[in-house]
Amino acid sequence: MSRLDLKAFMQMKQRGEKITVLTAYDASFAQLFEQAGVEILLVGDSLGMVIQGHDSTRPVSLDDMVYHCRAVALTSQCCYIMADMPYHTYLQPTQTVENARRLVEQGGAQMVKLEGGREQLEVIEALVAAAIPVCGHLGLLPQSVTTPDGYKVQGRDAESAERILADAILLEQAGVSMLLLECVPAELAKRISQRVAVPVIGIGAGVDCDAQVLVSYDMLGISGGHKARFVHNFLRGNDSIEMAVQAYVQAVKDGRYPAAEHTYQ
Ligand code: KIV
Q1: DSSP at 218
Q2: Model pTM?
Q3: Which of 22, 80, 145, 146 has its CA 20 to 30 A from that of 48?
Q4: What are the backbone angles phi and psi of residue 167, rounded to the nearest 5°?
């Protein structure tokens, strides 16, 4: 079995076939998600909350990410593996490339993801020059949120929407191979997905993105606390984790998830 690659995701976007993504942090879930048909596993720094018990992603270290990434990469045969670059690990180009190399060489990731717009062009260009594929992350940027009330929809007014769209174009020009949009109005996400050639992954960004991601612990209903509007518990009404994940994959593929009730205007 060969691993999915960026070419396959570009072709899926061109065909209008939705791409399925879930966060994974360990071997058992990675294997289960892969068998249920998930195509991309994101080793997200959301592990700071759902695994480590912190109240933000900021305390997650590069060593933590390498550890979890390795567990995911060792068990999955064909999923594409994306790893988050943790807070303060991509401050300048040389440091960014060294840190990303650890995620790729020691962790087994195929792609790294980092948060931010035009301020990240230099580090993105350095990663691309080092042949490390990059996913940009725009909209709500969890590493910039320091209080619980900071988790807000982004790009609701015309000025901030135009800025996010402009950032998406700049990131694509800098060489990102994918973009992730978090918590933005569906109409803005649709415009961006149509405007850029690279696949756009949405979370709280409406049904018109090329791909959907959820934090796996949220979609299985096993993380506590307040749930954002876009979160759906797929375990409810299904008898097993396998069935819940298959239901998620099918709902994304069919365009039934996210529905209007999961979407911001
Ligand atoms: O770390 C994470 O889980 C993320 C989500 C927004 C998908 O980046």
Answers
A1: H
A2: 0.98
A3: 80
A4: -60, -40
